[in-house]
Amino acid sequence: MKTEKFKKQCNTNLSIAICRPGTSAALCALVLSLPAPDVWSQTDDRVDEEILVTGTRLSQRRAIEAKRLADGIVDAVSADDIGKLPDKNAAEAVDRLPGVSISIDQGEGRFVSIRGISPALNNLTINGVTTGSPEADDGGRLAPLDVIGGDFLKAIEVVKAQTPDMDAQGVGGTINVVTAGPFDQEEVLFGTFTGQFGYEDLSKDSPYAAKFTLGGLDSSRTWGWLLGASYSYRDFESRGVFQDDWREETLDGVSARLPENAKNNFYTLERIRTGVNAQVEWRPTDADRYYARAFFSRFEEEEVRQRYEHFFNRDITALTPTGGTSGTNNRREQDARYEEKDKEFFNIAIGGENAIGETWLLDYVAQYNQNRQTEPNRRWEFRGDGYGPDTWRLNSRGFALIQSGPTDVLDPARLRFRRVLLQDNETEEDALILGLNARRQLPAFGDAGQLKFGVKYTATDRTNDAANTRYNLGDNDWFLSDFGHFGGVLVNDIDGVDFPNLAVDIGAATAFLNANRNNTAFFELDDEDTFENEFENDYDITEDISAVYLMGEWAWGEHEVIAGLRLEHTEVDSKGLQRDADNLTAIPISQSGNYTNLLPAVIYRVNLEDDLVLRAAWTNTLGRPDFNQIAPISSLSREGSEGALFIGNPDLEARESANFDLSLEYYFAQDALLSLAVFYKDIDNFIVERSEQRRDFTFNGELFDEFTVTTLENATAAELEGVELSYQQQFDFLPSPWSGFGVALSFAWIDSEIEIEGRDDKLPLIQQPDWTRSYTLFYQAHGFEASLSLDESDAFLADILDSREEDLQHGEYGRLDFKASYAVDDRYSVFFEWQNINDEPNTEFQGLRERQNTGYEVYGQTFYLGLTVNF
């Protein structure tokens, strides 16, 4: 970059500025602090052929400008001029970026994968500061972005090449959520209200949402305040078919592959999202800035799952490649699950920036995070035997379509109570983060060089408390038809196929259990399993990370270099409980571990032409072990005379990734970008399972014929490479009305390789698709705008089992969405959204055969009408 346009970026407020020759550090601090150059806050009232730059086009302009001015390699999505991201939550908003894919939960995006790397190896920050995660599943490093709604966010940045002043965590990258601030608009008082009401195609329910933002500045423009709040309610259904453990069967010379069972699920769900963003900021001088900000986001869910399960292929009497007939010893099961989830992000921060003299600029922050999740889960199970003969055939999707014998498979009086499981899980994570950065202009380089250094301390305390109380059948048999448990027959329509299902009345079942749990005629408490589940997954972990870094920035002519080192030292203290072999008691245990990482980085940028930018980067990042992996916990599972013991490993160290990036960006017109990026990652210390098999082994006084002990270790390495291509353009060179059209396209190809113990073949990384694609067509003219988007991701490896025939693959996924809005005047606008137009299913299959269906869920379409008022 030219010296007169040498860029500086402030991490605390994420503004982007241009510091020109002769500009003092104090004035540079002012530019860094004020919102005018901030690409996330820009408005543009320039008129090109009567097209006012608002909405989608303004979002594209901001995102392009952010990429162009970024220190590292960054892609971003910006809110539109009314402060709204285009999707239900933050995860879905970034799905359109190159190299980004998301995992789906009940039709909504949840976790974000960057360049094929597991979401657990990313770093989530809010306004540049690590926020942690409330998630209990999969170890606690996963950050569920569906908790964060798309309202009152200014932007979401995906940083793929991190500078030394950023946290080292992030093998995939860093996802930075930027919230709106009071100086985003130069108004004494400003505000926005948005309300929307919708329709769920599958359940016929009506979701709704509302949000407001109110803020302002004092008359001197030195004090600013902002308060935003949002609420959304969604009541909906989803339906699915699940078929486990496909295997090959042979009868009379005919071979066929078929699943062990066939399940169909009927879900009813209620999801509520609540968010608050509050900020106060004081700018007493051009060179000083102080702020206090708080962010709160809550996700509440109630889910009822009714599951009917066929074990339909015992004692096979006839077999064809796509069907067959079984005997009369088949089984049916009905279970109902009632689950509540409550997840919260909360952080509060105070900080500031100060220019000292003409050459120094300080910024500092102190932040407290509190994340929590509670997840009570109740599951009732009923079972019946002696069904059949069953005749089945597999349709083109791999669904097992079953024609049952003379026994009434929907008779609740044949389904005997088996057990009820009462699971409770509570996770809480508290963190204190202290950071101080100092930058100094280097006189030898004039205004084209600076030195930056800083320290950061992050203290995290995370606890997990899980329990599973189990009641088995008591002295007397009783059935689904008894005591008001039966809630009726369900017809589960999945893509035009009607699957039989039954309903368990959750309210009646809960009341009966509460009244009779101590009555041994109906229930018998499983003391041993309940005791083991009471403590085997409980832990308390403190993780202290101390970091120091030094980096320099130099610019000459059209060139810019950032080089530096980051040192991070991690201390881990973990506590758990271990079973006393002789008594139903638990013994506290504790272990400690530590590791240190030195992480160099060099990032180079050159303007080959005024509109052509080349970047190259060598960076080093970390992927810390999941919390449950470093906890001193053990869990025992049994199946007949076989046992399996899993043991955590507090001595695990972080994965280390050396990252190489090369990109070329062509800004060939206003609001236009064509970019190509190639990348390579060499990941060491990859964490893998290590197992030992033992025979005739006694554990805790119990004899097992076969016993497997599994733990984790840093053992293997992985490699990943890929290419990203992005194209965005507004067609304003065309005559009206065609000048209102524009497109945003992105593609990524990714390939990876990892060696797994016990497997001769080389596998890709879990959750790494070969291709991701995104297509957006938008139009804007005369107050009207519309966008049509399709986001696609290829199939990827979901779970590694014993062989490729058994491995689970997540199917390809591509969702089509439409949004249109019309600005009635400067204050009022109306909008319409149509989500999941193509009614895309979420699928999983076994081996490399898509017809070996292990999961197929449908969610239906969602429609919204809304109104926005600016004041």
TrEMBL record:
Residues 70-174 form the TonB-dependent receptor plug domain. It is a multi-pass membrane protein. Gene3D superfamilies: TonB-dependent receptor, beta-barrel domain, TonB-dependent receptor, plug domain. InterPro entries: Beta-barrel_TonB (IPR000531), Beta-barrel_TonB_sf (IPR036942), Plug_dom (IPR012910), Plug_dom_sf (IPR037066), TonB-dep_rcpt-like (IPR039426), TonB_rcpt_bac (IPR010104). It is found in: Cell outer membrane. Residues 410-837 form the TonB-dependent receptor-like beta-barrel domain. PROSITE patterns: TONB_DEPENDENT_REC_3 (PS52016). Keywords: Cell outer membrane, Membrane, Receptor, TonB box, Transmembrane, Transmembrane beta strand, Transport. The keyword Transport applies. Its main location: membrane. The keyword Transmembrane applies. SUPFAM superfamilies: Porins. GO terms for cellular component: cell outer membrane. Belongs to the TonB-dependent receptor family. PANTHER family: PLUG DOMAIN-CONTAINING PROTEIN, TONB-DEPENDENT RECEPTOR-LIKE BETA-BARREL DOMAIN-CONTAINING PROTEIN. NCBIfam families: TonB-Xanth-Caul. This is TonB-dependent receptor. It comes from Exilibacterium tricleocarpae.
